[in-house]
Amino acid sequence: MLQELLKSLQEFLYQLGDRLAGGPTLTPQAASFIGVGALVLAVSTLAVALIALRRATRMRRHYETLMTGSGGSRLSDALEHVIGRLDAVEQRASKVGHHARSIDVGLESAVQRVRLERYDASGDGAPNSFSLALLDAHDNGIVLTALAGRDRTRVYAKPIQAGQSEHGLSEEEQRALRGADAS
């Protein structure tokens, strides 16, 4: 059957060559080679086109699967939702950062170091007197001293600026202040 087809194609091409006025004529053998070559080229082109179509269809399916999320929602909708949530988280994080900085500033002036020195100021053998140093991050604060006696107790408060006092400090008050500085 293929031989009959090739023979018919050869005769057709031969007759076509004869009809062309003044042009070169093809021999039957040359016409058969051209016909077979054209047929092979057509089949190859068809095969390549079918392979390309199959790959394009597969890629399209993969793309549609990728673009459709769970529950049939679109990937672009899901991404927009995630980006919106991310923006909200960034805004909250910024607010938390500002709040944390204001707390840090406030904590610098809060009492951070404390030292209590107990001692016997009355000489009765019981350490009922004390000096309490309360300092912030910049060594500012107060030293409270309570001197307990048998019939009365006196309380003194001395301001501290940069670790120093304008008022004279007793030995116990100085120990409390040094201990607070070291903590």
- Spans where pLDDT lies below 50 across 5 or more residues: none
E-strand count: 4
Number of domains: 2
Helix content: 55-70%
Task: Characterize the main sheet.
Answer: 4 strands, antiparallel
Q: What is the typical, i.e. mean, pLDDT?
A: 84
Strand order across the largest sheet: 1-2-3-4
In whole angstroms, how far apart are the ends?
107 Å
Global outline: rod-shaped
Would you list the SSEs in sequence order as H and E? HHHEEEEH
Classify the secondary structure makeup into a structural class. alpha+beta
Strand proportion, as a percent range, falls in 15-25%
Computed CA radius of gyration, to the nearest angstrom? 50 Å
Distinct helical segment count: 4
Write the layout of secondary structure elements.
Elements: H1 2-19, H2 28-67, H3 75-108, E1 113-119, E2 129-135, E3 141-148, E4 153-160, H4 171-182
Helix pairs in contact: 1-2
